[in-house]
Amino acid sequence: MIDGILYDGVTGDRREVRAEPIGGKLQLTHSDGSLETIDAAVLRRIDRDPDRLRIGRSDREGWRLLVPAAAKSDFDPLLGKEERYGRWIDRIGLVPALVTFGVITAGIVAIGYLSPKWIAPHVPESWERNVGDAIVGDFGDNRCRGAEGQRVLDKLVERLDPGATHGPNAIRIATLDFPIFNAAALPGAHIVVFQGALDEVEDPDALAGVVAHEIAHVRRRHVTQALIRELGIGALIRLFAGDVGVNAQQLVSLSYTRENEAEADRDAIVMLRRANISPKPTGDLFVQLANEMGEEPGFTGEFLQSHPLSRKRAERFVAAAQKGSPIGTPCLTANSTRSS
Amino acid sequence: MDSYKAWPADGDERAIRFTGNWREYLPIAATNVALIIVTLGIYRFWATARQRRYLWSRTHIVDDGLEWTGTGKEMFFGFLMVVAFILPFFVFIQFLFPALVARGKEAAAGGLMFLFYIAFFYLAGVARFRALRYRLSRTWWHGIRGGSDNPGWNYGGEYLGRHALSFMTMFIMYPWAATRLWNSRWKAMSFGPLQFRADLTAKGLKARWVWVYIAPLLLMAVSAAIAMIVITAKLDGQEADPEKMAGLGGVLGVILVLFYIVLPLATLHWYAKFYRNAAAATTLGDIEFGFDATTWDWLKLFLGNIGLAIVTFGFGLAFWGYRQWAFMVRHMHVYGVVNLDQLTRSTVAAPREAEGWADAFDVGAI
């Protein structure tokens, strides 16, 4: 007989009882001498602190029997296994669970890392075009609508990638009236150049380099990859993410972007060469940008920035120019890029 | 057997005690972190349940520990339920917003974003209420639990309205909003047959809020004054005395640092008093509460948290919840008498979605 404390779940009264496991059942002797026998099937192990073992009943909410922890071994046969990490982990054990889930997680991350690259080429361009048009529309009032400027940009794309502005998968280039120095490839073969970039670029050949880079993003389906990555693995990880997840996701998408950027730079250099435009002004532009931003090469900066260092990218273009590529003919006259 | 428990009003024996220690908790923290990492975060619901089961069981009130009966599974499914409900809206907005901007309809996009934030704020209020309700419904003492029958939809509206008022008065009204919301939240809660009551007022809190309020304004005014001196010096065409300029730059730097020290300190100063007053203004039946943590105590807690995280290379983060709970319990006081045979089974609903709303909106409960 073990002295215990009983709460019946009906009131908060604390009652002293004597408890004894007898033949697969629990027998309680109440303070008034009455006996109560409880089937082991309804008993549940609740918790254990250093002093007491807590037993509950599946058929009575709040019913609790507290016995000294020292008597644990007497009651163990009546109670199920102790839940420690959660039933799904307990079933396989902590270490096997860590290994199994570790492997599965590594697999998911690897697939998340690689699958956009595999899936992107198989997404029909017409689908992407529909998504892109739905998102982008016609840019409303933000678009510079000057016919001459548009003609100049189309001509530039044609020179870099002959035939690119025609056909069902035509590249559609537009200038947006924002004073930002940037250009971007958007879903559905849209390329946008911000007015700020047109105003700032001194050598039109540098603009050609930038546009060539964006054309490469479109042609290589990098935009599609980014969409898939964002909608797929990114959303999944963000859903459950603690901080660990966010960092993991950032690493995945970062290294990806860097790979894509490098590929786009290589393609851009090829395009420039084919169009007989020197890559050097693009390189100079990147050097200038790198200086303006005060970027310093360094391991952490290199690794954690979402875009490769401009200096490094600049080196690619400058090196291409030095590798005996033709100096080229200027692609545009300086003022013809001013649109609208 | 006596049903009355006389609770110490003061003295050596505290009515509420924390009996855990970090060595006991370490294996829980370590395995939680490991499992969260290998499951890409999914285990965090079970980790929370384990953490609470430990912390609750080591919190003794008079003659028995608390018991946490919430499970990781219910929190996981509660989270999924809420996410399934709100995710379509998020995805819709995520596509609709850029689509409107791209078409040059900035006004419509702005309006959409405004509505979105209103809805977000309302649901954050609901989430906060429901998290508290859930926690009480899974907290047991002497075989009795707490909870609320109020679903919290009205509280969400009150939360939105009071914060809007606070916002429109440039946060001058914030102490009133915060105190009234505390009252509304706790008045809806019960433990067994006993109803919580709360009549916290802004009395005694306003002075501390003034500090939070004027600290940034004061620092901004000083910075602006320095900036003016620099600009006028330049406009006068005098090539500024480099030594003087360096001095001013130094002062600006100091102000920037102060900004990051003074503002959190003023906030802490406010919250310390807020929680002391709030506990004193809250009762459960004939039971009264007290809380005695000073600003200095809170500061030590937070500095300790940060220091611990740094020296353990981040692992110490796993102990923040433990330290926070231990801190709350150690500074809490419970006074009064409870009639145990009248402390009867709670009849209020036990919510099924657990902390899904609070999880989805990342808000606290108390």
TrEMBL record, chain A:
Residue ranges crossing the lipid bilayer per the database entry: 94-114
Domain Peptidase M48 residue range list: 173-316
Source organism, top-level taxon: Bacteria
UniProt record similarity statement: Belongs to the peptidase M48 family.
Cofactor note: Binds 1 zinc ion per subunit.
Native source species: Sphingomonas sediminicola
UniProt cofactor(s): Zn(2+)
Protein name (database record): M48 family metallopeptidase
Record CDD domains: M48C_Oma1_like (cd07332)
Keywords: Hydrolase, Membrane, Metal-binding, Metalloprotease, Protease, Transmembrane, Transmembrane helix, Zinc
Keyword Ribosomal protein annotated: no
UniProt entry tagged with the keyword Repeat: no
From TrEMBL, chain B:
Pfam families in the cross-refs: DUF898
Keywords: Membrane, Transmembrane, Transmembrane helix
Domain of life: Bacteria
Transmembrane domains' residue ranges: 25-46, 76-101, 107-129, 210-233, 245-266, 301-322
Protein name per Swiss-Prot or TrEMBL: DUF898 domain-containing protein
Natural source organism: Sphingomonas sediminicola
